Amino acid sequence: MATTAENQTEETEENFQQFYEKWKTQQNQHLQELITASEHAPTNETMSTHLSNLVKSVVEHYEEYYKAKSKWAEENILLMLSPPWTSSLENAFLWIGGWRPTMAIHLLYSKSGLQLEAKFSELIQGLLTKHDLGDLSPSQLSRVDELQRKTINEEKEITEKMAKQQEKAADADTVELSHLVSEAMREGGANERNREAEENQVESTLHPKEEGFKKILDRADNLRLKTLRSIIEIFSPVQAVHFLIAAAELHLRIHEWGKAKDERQLNGGVGHPISQQQT
Amino acid sequence: MAGMFCGANMGGETETAKPVEPSSGSARRRRMEIHQFRFVASDAAVAPPPPPPPPESGRKRRKVEVVLPASSPPPRICNNMFQNSKLERNEKEKTKEEVDYNMWSSSSPKFGMTSVCGWRRDMEDAVAIHPSFSQGNPHLHFFGVYDGHGCSHVAMKCKDRMHEIVKEEIENSSDDLLWKETMKRSFTRMDKEITDWSSAAGVSSTSCRCELRTPQCGAVGSTAVVAVVTPDKIIISNCGDSRAVLCRNGSAIPLSVDHKPDRPDELARIEEAGGRVIYWDGARVLGVLAMSRAIGDNYLKPYVISEPEVTIMERTADDDCLILASDGLWDVVSNDTACGVARMCLRSLKPRSPARSHRNDVSVSSAGESSDEACSDASILLTKLALARHSTDNVSVVVVDLRRDV
Predict the structure, then answer these.
(1) What is the CATH number of the domain that holds B213?
(2) B116 and B99 share a domain?
(3) Distance CA B242, CA B386 (A)
(4) Model-level pTM?
(5) Which of B38, B82, B351 has the CB atom closest to A117's CB atom?
(6) B41 contact residues in A (CB cutoff 8 A)
(7) Where are the residues of the annotated region Disordered (chain A) (predicted)?
């Protein structure tokens, strides 16, 4: 049984890993398209429609990701909660197997702040400037703020659910079983252990817990996707393009930085490349 | 408790109008960061003030009388969470002309307000705006900014009650209204209500974070900066480190001085009362609270008091606007910059951002007139500036237009 589980794990991992790599390549292609689109402000209806369609297809690409993730989580939830295809750096930022939903708002505030800063002097002279995330209107900021509060609350709720779920590691069933199995191991010689029964019991104790994790991951992923959709809805197409660029850049670069870090670690290099250069 | 530290750890001072040099390392660090900011330089781009308009004294001026609808709810959107309000103008002009050169009287003041959670995970700011809040005198307008710490319920209570208390105090006072006394009495009553309410609570329906469950409720408080704007005066009552700044002829005049524990007079008062100021991430009363006055904070009494400092400022023809804001703004934007930005928004003939034409953008005034929109623009731009400069706190900004004839 153990070998079957391992094989299954490997297969799931490989499949999702492949999917993930492919998805990342597509994200990179989308990024190029988004950047090209952002370079020229739409001057006519056709261009606006093009932007809207581009935004739509990028959002659909995210939806595809979560659909696939949910499918694979069905097969191996534990793998999804500690994904080996992400880097240690990314894992440090993980919230229930993915990015923290409120991070979307922080991403917006960061990008919006940078773009506001870049054109502040023109703005203050009353000049019309390039339209981007720097000029969120009052109603847009109000909706972002509302979304933020809602998202924080939902995030907290799910976090609380996760806390309860994690505490189940030490529920009576598990503790009792761990004791029985330990005892059986100690008495190993005397009593013939019924390995198969034992494994079945372990499986039946752990299974509901994995189910619980799956439900929580689904909720977390739903919130991630919902937050992304909601924030995009607030934006004009041009602003959405800027936001999606920032999101893709952040994801791809953090992934690369993390991978590079892991590689250095693996090659025995400890510490920072800069400090290594200095010595 | 953690929240309290969060809410209060802005330990330093901003550049302007402070009697005390910032003493904490973090304040210094932050100041340096601010100076590094690229667009500090562009603050200079705020146009120099044009010569002041000729005084209007003696000139005949049409008096505008305003009739508010019988039920005139304050123009609020959603729970104070975020507002960007403008008041529907509902004016009926009188044909009668009067000589009244000391008038800025309107029962529909122009203002803009923004209040956002920002980079924090808890919203503890609250804002209250009540034009014509006193029946006796429709020309009195109330503006209040409350920045809670520990939890939001004291700030929310101030938002709900302070204007009612002030109104009662005004209406109960004799003919010659003494503003300082009236405001001090109001703050004392507000504070007492909080104390009574907290001790009676537990049954309360409040849904705040602390849920009023523990004695730690005594560790919850709020700043309060309240402006009563009359036709000829601005009365600012302040308790804590939110701030009111008057923009007059392009320059910033602070109308309140932040109550920081290391302000020499406050430090002396605290020590005289037997308290101590301990430097723990900035100066804090008993090492806990980074402000020396607040509504609530029962367990820090008598060192932390709720008595406001009241400033009465006569209005002049040179006044541009009044800015009330929580430290989420003032921590990262100087008084002068704030005034420059607000004035620019009030004076500009709308550099309309293209975003406004976006179909999703529905809130702001299709019928309204530009100056309210200008106040909103000012409050929103100041808020965005604070967010851009990574203010770590909630940001609440109220901008009140004080100009005549606009």
Answers:
(1) 3.60.40.10
(2) no
(3) 14
(4) 0.77
(5) B38
(6) 121
(7) 184-209
